[in-house]
Structure formats: C-alpha cells, structure tokens
Fold each of these.
Amino acid sequence: MENKNTMELKLPGISVNEGFARSVVGAFATQLNPTLEEIADIKTAVSEAVTNAIVHAYPKSPGEIHISAALEGRAITVVITDFGIGISDILAARQPFYSTSKDDSRSGMGFTVMETFMDGVNVISTPGKGTSVELIKKIGQQG
C-alpha cells in the first residue's frame, strides 16, 4: 500500500495570494515527477479555482481560502474551499461564459479551464456557506 502525502494552506482571499497558491501546489506536485506541461496544467487549474473564490465568494470583502492537496499513487487531488456566498446553480456556473460578476473583464471560463486541464473537477456548494472545488490530475497519463 502506498503512502498518502498531504499538505494544507490557509490564506486570505486577496489577489496577490493567487500566484502564491499556484506555486505552492505546483511545488508540492513535483514529488510525482510530472512533466512541465502537467505542472502548468495543475497551476492553471489552481489559479482559476482560487481566482473564482477571490472574485465570486467574497464580493464585498476578502475571506479565507483553504487549500489542501494529497498525493496518492500517480495522482494529485487539490481541494480549494471558501466560506463565502456559495453557488446557487452549479450546473449553470460550469457552463462556458457564465459569470455572476458585474466586472466585464471576467470571461466566465473558470470551470471550463479547470475541466480542460484536469482529469476530474467536482464542485460542492451551499448558498450562504461556501464552495469546495476538487481538482484531480493523474500524472503520466498523456496519450
């Protein structure tokens, strides 16, 4: 039986922490000896999930974001959790170009990007309580 290695990170949901979060998770994932492309995929998906939490979960003032990651076998599972306003319609939120942000610079492609770069994306949300986004990437699975 293989050992499971884990990490946890808690940080304020402010934009300067998005890059830090992606770097920490990317560095943690290097234990699986991924390709540069696999690391870039993981970092991109983490960036999207953290940015979603910063922009959508806490629209009035920053809140806390929790990130946990686990390495098991040849896979990394990353969970990004916020305790913000939640998502009332997860199915709609996962559609390309959907956004609740009033900011026109938001493309509404966050979940689509996560799904493109990861092998699995699961979203659990409760309005008024927050959202957890689980990202799964299998290392060494390129066709």
Note: The chain has one domain: 5-138.
Amino acid sequence: MSHCYYHSLSSVRQWGGKPEDYQPLHDWFDQSKAHIGDLRHRALRHHSEGIFMLEAIFGTTLTNSHGRIVPVRLIGEQHVREDLGRIPSFADWARALRVEPWMTKGQRLSQQFDASDSQ
C-alpha cells in the first residue's frame, strides 16, 4: 500500500471503527520515510521487532470508536503484511544490507581515555 490512510481503511474493514482510530499506528510505521524516501525506509520498522515496538508504544490493545477492543499487534501485523506480503525479522533485513568499509572504522574508547588520564 502506498499511504497510511489506505492501511487505516483496511483496518476499518477488518475491525470496524473509523480510520482515525488506526491512523497513528500506521503513521508510526512509515515515519521512517522522513529519513529515506524509498522502500528501504521499511527496514527500520517493518519487521517482527517493529510490531512489538508498536505494541510497547501504543499499548497492548486499542478501543476503536465502535467500542471494539483490538490487539495492537494484529494491526501492526496487518500493516507489514500489506506492505511486504509477510512479516520478516530484522535479521532478514540485515542480511540484505551490504557491509561498507566505513562501518568497520571504529575507534577504541580505551585509547582516548588512556591518553586523557595521563595528563
């Protein structure tokens, strides 16, 4: 799906209520578009851990405007499945990332502290 509003409409079809009941949850998944404007933004939240993060932020359930209690995790699973066709793990995304040389240029903190301690 291309827009969170359509995810919200899909949630309404599944659990009732109004799109506004679900919009904040679907918006949360796609906030990463602010950092990268193509499909790669999904690597940040569109996975099993992202679904559990959604639940930690928004709570275990929500009560929609029709009074129905809906598990937040199911809403997250719906979003990810609609976008990807399945629920990957973060490891699935990480395997698709290419290791770049800059990723291996770390500096040992102990060297910085040792130098400042001797002064």
Note: The beta strands are 61-63, 69-71.
Amino acid sequence: MAVLDQPVAAEAITYGIYDADEHYYEPEDAISRHLERTYRHAVRWIELDGRKTLLVNDRLLKLIPNPTYDPVGVPGSLESYFRGHNQEGKEVRDLIEMQRIQPEYRDRAKRIAAMDDQGVDFAWLLPSLGLGLEQMLTDEAETVAAVFRSYNRWLEEDWGYDRDGRIQTGPLISLLDPAAAEAELERVIGLGARFITLRPAPVAVPGRPRSLGDPAHDRVWALAAEAGVVVAFHAADSGYGKYTLDWGEADHFTGLRGSPFSEVLGIHIERPVFDTMAALVCHGVFDRHPTLRVATVELGAGWVPELLRRFRAAYGKVPQSFGRDPVDAFREHVWVAPFYEDDMRLLRDAIGVEHLLLGSDWPHPEGLREPRAALTDFGVLEPDEQRRVLRENLSELSGR
C-alpha cells in the first residue's frame, strides 16, 4: 500500500471531524447534587492548607492535584513532554501552563460554539474527576453504585447523553455490584445513552476480585450489545499501583506523572488496558456477546502489537481454549484511539484503519492544543484512510 511521505496539513481537510476523546471538567456539586443522604459521607469537600480539595472514603484524592479545576492546565501545554521532548528534565509542574477555567469546559452551549470554531462536528465527552472515584471506594460496592447514580444524573442534567447529534456523554458504570450495574445501565439506556464509561481494571471486589469476563457480568454486556451501546474504557485509577508497591515504590499515581519505573512498565496506562483487553478476549466475552463493541480511549495504542503477538502465540499452543482466533476477535470488536505519539501506519496494518479513532483529549493539558492538531499525526495515512479515522469510524460507532 502506498503511503504519504509528508503529513497532510490541517488546512487540507475540508470536512468536520469526529473526536472520540474530549472532556468536561466537573463542577463541585457533580457528585453531591443528586447523592442520597445515606451516602453523602463518602465524598466531601474540605479545606487543606488553604486549598479546597476532596476526600473520598475519608482519604485525600491524590490523582487530581486541584479537583476544583480553577485554575486548570492550558490545553496541549504538555504535548512536548508527552512526545518525549523534555531533554532538560523539567518537572510537570514547571512545564504546565495554567489558566482560569473556561466557560466551554462546563457549559454545554459554550462547548458547542467552541466545537463549531474548531471544526469538530461531533464529540464524545468523558469524565475528568469521575475517573478517580471507583478505586477509592472498592470496599463499598453499594456506595460506588450510589455515587455513580448521582454522577450520571448530574451528567444527564448538565450535558445530556445524546441530545442533538453533536455531543454524546458516557455514564459511569461499576461492575462491583452486577445487579446495580445492570439496573443503572437499563436506566441510562432508557434516557438515550449511546456509550458507557468503565475503567480498565479487574473488578476489585475485596478478597475475591473478578475478571470482566466473569459470567456474573454477562447481563451488563448483553444489555449493551442488545442496545448497541459502546463500552468505552478510559484511562483511570485502575489500582495498578499495587504492582509498584511490590517493587518498593509508592502505590498511587499522583497527577500526570509516575516514577521512571512505572513509566517503563506502563503501570498506569498500557498495562491496565493490555490486561483488560486480554481478559475480554480470553475469558470469552465476545464469544458470548458477538455484537458487543468496545472502544479504548486515552489509553494509547503502543500495547496493541504486543497483545496481538501474544494472542497469536497462545492460539498456536492451545487453540482449543479459545472460541475462535483471538486476533480476529480483537479486530472485530475493539476500536482504538491512539496517542498522538503512536505509529499510525503500524496500527493501521495491525488492526485495520476501520478500527482507529481520533482522540484529542481536549481540553486536558496532556492532550492537543485543539482537536484538529491531530491531523498532522494522521496525515501519514492516505486521504481516504484519514477520513475514516477522523470522521467515519466514530460516526458509525456512535450512530451519528
């Protein structure tokens, strides 16, 4: 297949793009606004050293340095850092630019106007604060369910799950209590949800963790498949700090930076999604639910070639243990949003251009300065391939 020698400039793209990874910043009452009184102790704001911060399960939320999001990082201000261009060895806190929170980060009408200015026809909007909650509440399944119900009611109220064909949002679902997960999924499907958000992690039931592929979760996967709802796995606190703890390091991920050891191992990004996708395939989720569709967002794609290599090796040794070729199962059921630093040609050849998505991570500082900046990275693909990635794939996946 011929490829382009030089990336195509953003100005050469004449169509509006579809972005699978944008974010809102939650207001302070996002969790509490609809939270039943019985559970209000679980998440509360406090003053600490002159700053407002959040206690979850009586523990300080460390994943997000400033959960008020005011001030907040300028979009794309850490792009050079994440592209590996930090030869001076500066700390993230010295590289990130800060600004007052902008209206379009919390106001839906202002966001639509910003999308119009940016040439974005459609976007999935995902949590910021919400992605740090489940890991801190895993010993209280009933509380997690209540917190997510409240959060999802706020989300529907302020943003809507799918109001007008411009923005879709993904309600948070936890599988700690399968019955509660099923009930919440039924509720949000009834309100028009077209995708749901889960963290890439085993189901961390204290003392008896489960795979995502455990039959206990089959009703959730069946509901999603029957309704055509996409299951989106997004970077979160996946609890993988337990592995760095075994090697004598801290067991938590703070802000945007882990240790050199955790960076090399991919403990907070690549390892959780690698394991999650392996579990879905190897534990038969796609065999039992052949129309289920899964997307991975803000998890990059550097893990994909190695996962496919291991699938091939395992299938060659024990084909009787799989319902079908695991590489084929992955390629049929999983869509991937690469990081901007990933090799787009390699990924196209590995899983097919039809299963790649644009994910800008806007307006997060580790994302792009604006969504169309991704066109430079995808410009190494042929024009028809670019259009598939930048628009058509998410259009088909989302039904928009």
Note: The CA atoms of residues 46 and 187 lie 32 Å apart.
